[in-house]
Amino acid sequence: MLIDETIIHTVSMPLVAPFTTSFGTQTVRQALILEVHATTANGTAVTGWGECVAMESPLYSSEFLAAAKLVITDHLLPLLRTGGVTAETVGHRLRPVIGHRMSKAAVEMAVLDAQLRSAGISLASYLGAVTDRVPAGVSVGIQPSVEQLLDVVGSYLDQGYVRIKLKIEPGRDIDRVRAVRERFGDDLLLQVDANAAYTLVDAPLLRRLDEFDLLLIEQPLGEEDLRQHAALARQMITPMCLDESIVSAEAAADAIALGAAAVINIKAGRVGGYLEARRIHDLAWANGVAVWCGGMLETGLGRAANAALAALPGFTLPGDISGSDRFYAKDLTEPLVLKDGHIDVPTGPGLGVSPIPEALAEFGIDSTRVA
Ligand code: OSB
Ligand code: MG
Fold first, then answer.
1. Is residue 63 in contact with ligand 1, taking CB distance under 6 Å?
2. Is residue 349 a part of any domain in this protein?
């Protein structure tokens, strides 16, 4: 198909409660929403939607929203201007631009959505989904006190979430995990995520987590510390899971070979798109490495796509795929709803959901048209 024009919407969505991680506190989710207008080979007009998961500031990774908008506008879309485009070749066409995977992922997502909508195929069936609903875990931000943490975890469990992920940071780690384990019992599926807040010097401290029978510890060390994660993994019983470090299938292959990752958190945005995400899934599967689907406070668009990805057979652990209401009182699309601890995998063509025009108008703070 030929891309006629792209509209880059910036949305600003208030969170239902502040979300605190080791790298900061967020009360609003600003995101880029791509609206690609294209014409298929047989002359039909089609629209595709993409979401860029880059955050406002470069704290989780080097990418950030303002840069992403610039890269998409000035460097990525121009590479797709000449000749026909298919979702499967977007990654190759964008190769001259180094890095900027979240931006590339958003562009590929929109092209893929357009292509699948015009073909009447759901993203889930295109990717190879084997289930029609996925278990929902929830990522719990760092709370001001242990009491508040126990309240928040209790309310998510009441809602039916099947797995709890606690954000941790130095000084808010062992005691928090112990309190949750003691209150909610040994059967609770529990894991922690440090967002790179520790160094290898903290190994003796982190080893104290071993007594709490966690599913995994996610990204305790820095993005570039593959070898150090492998060293830490050898000192701990708790399975080592990487998030920030896995920026591509190549990085995943290195991490697995080094023994740095027994588990991988797959986020399509972080790795450059849903197609690369599927390649990592396939690689991990072949290596006996478990994967689960991470989240980046996506709107309904990215949330729907994540549910489709998480329905692949290698996703054997519950993902950070919560209902829309975990972050948003009102979503950009029809909400994804928690049912019996699960989220239904959308079945409609493409992503299966679209922005509701009134919601896009309400949350939109800018729309830029790129010819
Ligand atoms: O490390 O998984 C992470 C949110 C923003 C940036 C990084 C992370 C997260 C989360 C939230 O943990 C996951 C979600 O969207 O539910
Ligand atoms: Mg993480």
1. no
2. no
